[in-house]
Amino acid sequence: MLKVEELQAFYGTSQALFDMNLQVDQGEVVTLIGRNGMGKTTTIHSIMGIVSAATGSINYKGINITSLSSFKIARLGLALVPEGRQIFPNLTVNENLIATAANKRGNANPWTKKAVLELFPPLAMRLSSMGNLLSGGEQQMLAIGRALMTNPDLLLLDDATEGLAPLVRKDIWSSLQALKSAGLSILIVDKNLNDLVGLADRHYVIEKGHVVWQGSSQQLTDDPSIKDKYLGV
């Protein structure tokens, strides 16, 4: 579904990504993991066209999206849940959801507001609340719901549970498991390794803009040296 090959990206003269390679297959959950500042968000932003690729290629369903604008990439079926949630603070929960509602690829069973509220029941009680009055957990649910309302085929989540209380994180992971069970492909950045291992099919470990390890959840669990070398503080 998604294939990134030899991707390099810069911020000014500073190189952030070095020959990045990764792929996500249909129905897979794949993670990008690593310490802070190693290039995970830059990779996500490059895929979505927020950061320009200097060299390399990004292909989605056989279409080269390397140089496309972000809105064109989104129309092809990619949706981003950004770091920091970035919901619209001056819109209500209801307005946040309907603002992005679309089914441009004609999905037979599209995401609707009703479906999102069934996935995230707390939002149903806050439909008239302004975005900036929600708790952090509610904002993250809304950010995911807003992305789902675009009816994506591939969902990208950057810091999916950052700063959330343990019980809220549990709800988010359960929701992502439900999305996986429904067949949605997901590329996710997060620091909660135990939860990621239980959810994801494959993992990419990033160190200083390079992929330094990749493998399955079982392989990651069986090799504690990976965590000690690349993920520990």
Question: How would you describe this structure in keywords?
Answer:
Rossmann fold; 233 residues; 2 domains; 27% strand; 6-stranded mixed sheet; alpha/beta
What integer is the average pLDDT? Answer: 94
Sketch the major β-sheet. 6 strands, mixed
| SSE pattern | EEEHEEHEHHHHEHEHEEHH
Q: What would you report as the Rg, rounded to the nearest angstrom?
A: 17 Å
What does this structure look like?
This protein has 233 residues and is an alpha/beta fold. The chain folds into two domains: 1-77 and 153-165 and 184-233, Rossmann fold, CATH 3.40.50.300; 86-152, no CATH class. Helix content is 35%, strand content 27%. It has a six-stranded mixed β-sheet with strand order 6-7-8-3-9-10, with helices on both faces. The protein has a four-stranded antiparallel β-sheet with strand order 2-1-4-5. Strand 1 and strand 2 form a beta hairpin. It is globular. The two termini are 33 Å apart.
Summarize the entry for a quick read.
With 233 residues, this protein is an alpha/beta fold. It has helices spanning 40-47, 70-75, 93-99, 113-119, 121-124, 136-148, 166-181, 193-199, 217-222, 224-231; strands spanning 2-11, 14-24, 29-33, 53-60, 63-64, 78-81, 154-158, 185-189, 202-207, 210-216.
